[in-house]
């Protein structure tokens, strides 16, 4: 199924009522599909023939049950929107206000079998007192919440995604670009070099999920010995924004956030990675380092990075979680 | 260690004799490092101080044992050259002649424990009679060969890498570009869509290795039922070359090669993936599909994709291997 058909189906699914081809043509423009009403009707006929939509006289069309199913399976195509789109969309949609500590920030979602949950907390304990974590807070759900379903016998952990930094900066008018997800080698407690890199605009799978799955991290070893490999990402901001970024970051730190490991020099490569013209590189910790630590303890996790917008007031300081589940 | 120091060390390691700074400066240009002799001497002093090189009077310098070790650990930095560089380098270096069936083609290298080797052959059997393989030939090494070391108790399998197609086309003056490695969904035996994609010019890890490790393939299911997921890649050629590509591909087929699953239309997206201006998309099977089938049987493999140039005459028709190890 091509993108046009898919976009029409999506519109019909979202509207969930009978709408006409004129209305559809108008809404299609929002998806970047610019078609005449006539051409839309041609595509609608294809959908009719496949039983994915149904005509209701002159009023227009409605999506069928089969159409919904098709849309569901077609959502993998959506995935082939690259990760950069997910980053940009959630950064834009987040309404998190760092000054008021209000609004929805961006979480990575992980499910763990409840029998393993205490062991998982133990594995994360040292990470939450290390520099390799984004925030001192975490979401823990034992039951479904408004927008997260928790599978039976599982606990859901939400870790603050480092894309939250993008959201905060964007709200201050700073256009930050996420370039690479990587595995950062640490030596004597210092960032040394990237051992692996995947560009966010060239992958449909999240790089940090790939590195965790590939068992390429050693977060716990890094914390213990000062030598190891942690998840990190490479970002860029225009030189002109650098002071403002540092200013906002100091506010973030007062609110229990951290995560920026290194600022580069204007127009200079940072850890051998070149930056764009008139830009500065920034190295940010991966929000998934606590989850990497869990996997390093051979506890299986089911993780989706950059997953969901969530009300920041639902998050709890990690120490309190630890206390509660002692 | 920065790229300049690394490049100097590499030159000294390759030469493996005493050479002067003038000579080094000349060779550095080959690595894209353009420095005066004076600057090279400055860098050499740094290397001396770190004990990585040693001065021999006026003649010049030589790499030390410690220098070699540093180079070895630093080779991860090399990896952060993206996979596209590996593809282009090996395509260029390959001297495989499809007409004469002579020269070195490009192999993926996989090690399997010898106890699992028979089971692995069994797993690959159906792949080699399917459309999802590059060639009917395979390399099997039970002992070290000239340029491949085989670890104790292991067998080495070399599968023809699909980059061999690039090499063959390049020799005919066709500039083929490898864009994405992907997991291709097959329905009723037909290519349906990509379920995951990673751009070759944005990753330091091979995409197909990632997909195998992530257990994202179902090569055996695809062969059995016509529905499933196989490894594939997306390439592009200029429209003007299309007829020549088809002509060369028909010669390849007569020589026991295959692998092109789909040709796109000029300037048209192929399976929803847009192509560059005045280009045609081509979908090529992943050379690692036989290895994916082994992993689907829960046999552990150690694989390096796009690994080595190897004399094509050392490869054997898969059926003969099967016969030999019956």
TrEMBL record, chains A, B:
<dbReference type="Pfam" id="PF08461">
    <property type="entry name" value="WHD_RNase_R"/>
</dbReference>
<dbReference type="InterPro" id="IPR036388">
    <property type="entry name" value="WH-like_DNA-bd_sf"/>
</dbReference>
<dbReference type="InterPro" id="IPR002846">
    <property type="entry name" value="NRD"/>
</dbReference>
<protein>
    <submittedName>
        <fullName>Conserved protein</fullName>
    </submittedName>
</protein>
<dbReference type="InterPro" id="IPR013668">
    <property type="entry name" value="RNase_R_HTH_12"/>
</dbReference>
<dbReference type="Pfam" id="PF01995">
    <property type="entry name" value="NRD1_2"/>
</dbReference>
<dbReference type="InterPro" id="IPR038982">
    <property type="entry name" value="NrpR"/>
</dbReference>
<feature type="domain" description="NrpR regulatory">
    <location>
        <begin position="80"/>
        <end position="315"/>
    </location>
</feature>
<dbReference type="InterPro" id="IPR036984">
    <property type="entry name" value="NrpR_dom_sf"/>
</dbReference>
<feature type="domain" description="Ribonuclease R winged-helix">
    <location>
        <begin position="7"/>
        <end position="71"/>
    </location>
</feature>
<dbReference type="InterPro" id="IPR036390">
    <property type="entry name" value="WH_DNA-bd_sf"/>
</dbReference>
């Amino acid at each position: 199924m091509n993108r046009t058909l898919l976009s029409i189906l999506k519109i019909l699914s979202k509207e969930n009522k009978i709408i006409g081809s004129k209305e559809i043509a108008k809404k299609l423009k929002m998806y970047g599909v610019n078609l005449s009403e006539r051409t839309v009707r041609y595509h609608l006929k294809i959908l009719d023939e496949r039983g994915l939509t149904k005509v209701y006289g002159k009023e227009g069309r409605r999506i069928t049950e089969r159409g919904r199913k098709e849309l569901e399976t077609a959502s993998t195509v959506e995935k082939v929107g690259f990760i950069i789109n997910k980053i940009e969309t959630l950064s834009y949609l987040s309404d998190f206000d760092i000054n008021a500590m209000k609004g929805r920030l961006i979480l990575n979602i992980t499910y763990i079998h409840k029998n393993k949950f205490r062991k998982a907390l133990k594995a994360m304990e040292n990470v939450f007192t290390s520099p390799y974590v984004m925030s001192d807070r975490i979401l823990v759900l034992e039951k479904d919440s408004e927008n997260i379903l928790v599978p039976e016998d599982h606990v859901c952990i939400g870790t603050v995604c480092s894309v939250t930094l993008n959201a905060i900066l964007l709200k201050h008018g700073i256009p930050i670009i996420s370039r690479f997800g990587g595995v950062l080698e640490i030596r004597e407690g210092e960032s040394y070099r990237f051992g692996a890199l995947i560009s966010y605009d060239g992958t449909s799978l999240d790089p940090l999920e790939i590195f965790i799955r590939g068992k390429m991290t050693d977060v716990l070893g890094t914390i213990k010995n000062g030598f190891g490999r942690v998840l990190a990402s490479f970002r860029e901001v225009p030189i002109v924004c650098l002071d403002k970024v540092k200013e906002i970051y100091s506010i973030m730190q007062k609110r229990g956030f951290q995560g920026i490991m290194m600022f580069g020099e204007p127009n200079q490569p940072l850890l051998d990675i070149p930056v764009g013209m008139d830009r500065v590189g920034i190295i940010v910790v991966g929000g998934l380092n606590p989850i990497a630590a869990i996997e390093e303890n051979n506890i299986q996790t089911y993780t989706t990075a950059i997953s969901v917008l969530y009300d920041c007031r639902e998050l709890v300081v990690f120490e309190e979680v630890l206390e509660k589940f002692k």
